[in-house]
Amino acid sequence: MAVAGLVAVLASAALSQDLWPEHRGPQRNYHLTTTTEYPTKWSVASDENIRWKMPLPETGHSGIAAWGDKLFLTCFRKLTAEDIGKKGTWVSETCGYCLAADTGKILWSCDLPGQRPNQVNGTFTDSTTPTPVTDGKHVWFVNAGGYMACHTMDGRRVWGKEFEVRTKHSAKQFQPFLHEGNLYYAMLRDASDKKRRPQKAIDYDKNSKTGWPWMYVRCFDALSGKPTGIIPEGITVHSKGALGVLNGETVLLHAKGGGHSPPEKSYGIGLSRLNAAHDLIWERPGLYFEGTHFVDQKYAYCFDKNDFVVLALATGKTVKRIRIRDTGSVIAFDDTSGRYKKSTDVSTWKPRHLLTHRTNIGVGRYHFFMGGRPGILGRIDVETGEVCYLQVPVQVVVENGGKKFSWSEFQSGDDTGSGFVVKGDRRRLSHGFGHISAATPIVLNNHIYFSTVLGTVYVVDATAERFDETALVAVNDLGLPGKTWTLSPFTAANGHLYQRTSREIICIGDGR
Questions:
Q1: Spatial distance between the Cα atoms of 469 and 103, rounded to a whole number of angstroms
Q2: Rounded to whole angstroms, how far apart are CA atoms 108 and 181?
Q3: Which of 95, 177, 203, 320 lies at a C-alpha separation of 20 to 30 Å from 368?
Q4: Long-range contacts of 285-289 (CB under 8 A, 24+ apart)
């Protein structure tokens, strides 16, 4: 009933304005169905259809929460040369910001001190990764380095508290959310908890199979910060979790397993109620799911190392298993002729990774994802089992007022708002496909918005009968090649798209 009430409140508010209160959006599944029209074509590099853009004080990953005339996001505190060590730039402290939605002007900010440094502009995550959460009265910020806080909409701090962080791979996918007056996030049990497993691993040894305490999804009273519950099954650092509704109750799909031998056992995937007891509805042990979960009204959708798996949401039983690895057809682009080729078989492909982390999303009978090969989008027909791929440009290049596409060559760079030069893992400066995270795509009225770390954005018609070049509505940019970098998802509110890069925040729509 509480869930239905929250949905009703959001739906009522959406009659006058579209809201994006947290990472997963107003429908909590990265979808927004609305009568409002949203832009599909723009260019930040050439100032096309851009309402405004504003430099950010520092770099960061978080998505943008939008409510009314306010935007909320997280950045690092000002970085200095002292933050650069032997392994690159590692920092724990972040800052939360409230911005005016019509100008991007900073209205207020707050310090979010952390306990454990994370790699700045990390390939998968950093301390700024969690997106703020708001209900229109309060806003909650989470620093993945070990701090969470609640503020009023005008910036007054209600409470703030530290929490312990395991390693840099502490909660690299999970995003905070509100439910029945509680704030949920993934973290360790408290040190005083008798059920906490002891730490035997050497600090920062991410590959220890048994030596780390387990991670759990925990909840806290949203207005006091006091702990109120825990999902006892544990959750891997790879699992972003997926919210759904089963028989009128809110449920969370969560997984254990993945790379670097996470200690939570036994590996598999499960579904829990978000009630007081956090009852486990079902669990499927032995499946290898690395955080690529999606839920609709009837099914849970997951990838393992080779296949796409459809599970019954109510029971966890396998409804369908579709082979992905070395299977399907691709429509590739011929750079010489400037045209797409006919569809060809992909059985000779040997990609190490099936898809780019966090990039899968379902729309009706289809499931979409960014492939593990550069410049490849994938679509699965869940009804027929057909797997199709489409080659897309890797980067948009703007020269002399004109726009052209680059299909293989690219320029990378993660310029920051302060001008600080980040050092560290050079994988972040690749093409943005494969063994790296990308922003979780969003769906606006059957248009999917994919974005890569290069700031290349693909808008795809999810209803297209054929997954060919006609399904590609637009290829847009978030800035100049070599100066644009992002791991942040899009936010849609009041007819505008909001996005941020490592250097600025952008409002798209109603521009030239």
A1: 36
A2: 25
A3: 177
A4: 287/255, 287/257, 288/257, 288/258, 289/239, 289/255, 289/257, 289/258
Taking the CA atoms of residue 359, residue 362, residue 368 and residue 369 in that order, the dihedral angle to the nearest 10 degrees is 10
For 357-380, letters b (16+ CB in 10 Å) and e give bbbbbbbeebbbbbbbbbbbbbbb
Q: Which domain holds residue 379?
A: 2-194+210-508
Q: How many folded domains does the chain comprise?
A: 1
3-state secondary structure 253-273: EEEECCCCCCCCCCCEEEEEE
Q: Write out pLDDT tens, residues 417-452.
A: 999 999 988 999 999 999 999 999 999 999 999 999
Q: For residue 89, what is the enclosing H or E element?
A: strand 88-91
Bridge partners (DSSP) of residue 167 are none
Task: Specify if 444 maps to a domain.
Answer: yes
Say which CATH number the domain at 339 has.
Answer: 2.130.10.10
Output the pTM of the full model.
0.95
Tokens of 497: 């798209």
Q: Is residue 498, in this structure, part of any structural domain at all?
A: yes
CA 457 – CA 81 distance, rounded (Å): 32
Q: What would the mean pLDDT of 277-306 be, rounded to a whole number?
A: 87
For the record, the structure tokens of 248 come out as 């009128």
Indicate whether 246 belongs to any domain: yes
Q: What is the C-alpha separation between 440 and 29, in angstroms, rounded?
A: 10
Query: In this structure, is residue 203 part of a structural domain?
Result: no
Count of Cβ atoms closer than 10 Å to residue 512 Cβ: 8
Cβ burial of 236 (10 Å; 0-12, 13-18, 19+) is: buried
